[in-house]
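Run log, item B.
One chain of 305 residues. Sequence copied directly from the ordering sheet:
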Amino acid sequence: MTPRMTFRGIYTPVVTPFNTDYSPDFGALEAVLERLIASGVYGVISGGSTGENYAMTVAERLEVARHTVRIVNGRVPVIMGTGAMLPADSLALASGGKDMGADALLIATPPYAVPTERENALNTLAIDRAADLPVILYNYPGRMGVNMGEEFLDRVGRSRNICAIKESSGDINRVHLLARNYPHIQMSCGMDDQALEFFAWGAQSWVCGGSNFLPEEHIALWRACVVEGDFDKGRRIMSAMMPLMRVLEQGGKFVQCIKYGVTHQGIDTGAIRPPLKALNKDDKRGLEQVIRVLKTTIQTIEKEG
């Protein structure tokens, strides 16, 4: 079955800049999107958890997505995040994404409910039917409580819209399972510190929050592995990126680090919505040092070829 949409390259789950009163800052959002498009990312995701969707109403998420679609104006695909606790909210986000011209949906397991694989599949297919757009699944059991297992994949895989899966379990055996048993569902890296392994097993795309502020460096790793097939170079780049991966994946302050990274690179992303709080001075200095060394090292690797 030929997928309706090919996922290849770097896809950025875009941050949501806020003003001091926590309202969306659409001027800063436009600056972020223009920077990403100019850097060469292949697509953007509106309303993901990196965009603080858990702290926003459906109406706010739709408003941010509408601005995103308008600003991007067809230059790269816009993927509508539909993750929500209430199935009705996910349906509203999916149909709203369709109406505003989004190119695809990102569908996650509803958090906290802990559905069976059959229940989760039926919920996913209902969201799929609400928009009839290409779908990238989002498997993140650490946040959702359950895996999108084989029964789930067998059921949803019958839909022509199910094109890809962002795999964020951290379990390398899942990468093997997807590559061997579900080649018709494109595998996308969703675990930053395993990017090299994903590419070795045939992943063609990477959904990475860090590309909000280091898009060229993430593209460099993808290009070395996927385009050039040079895994020696890829290992060197990945080694340079590992301190950042440790900060993002293991520090417990993922969104705060991403937003500060964007701010540090020159676009003020503003406030963090509660319950999260901004980084303290020590955390900021530590992240700045990691960014500085990473950029210098990867520039040297790129020059050496």
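Observations after the first pass:
- The beta strands are 9-13, 43-46, 78-81, 104-108, 135-139, 162-167, 186-189, 205-207.
- The first strand starts at residue 9 and ends at 13.
Flagged for discussion on Thursday.
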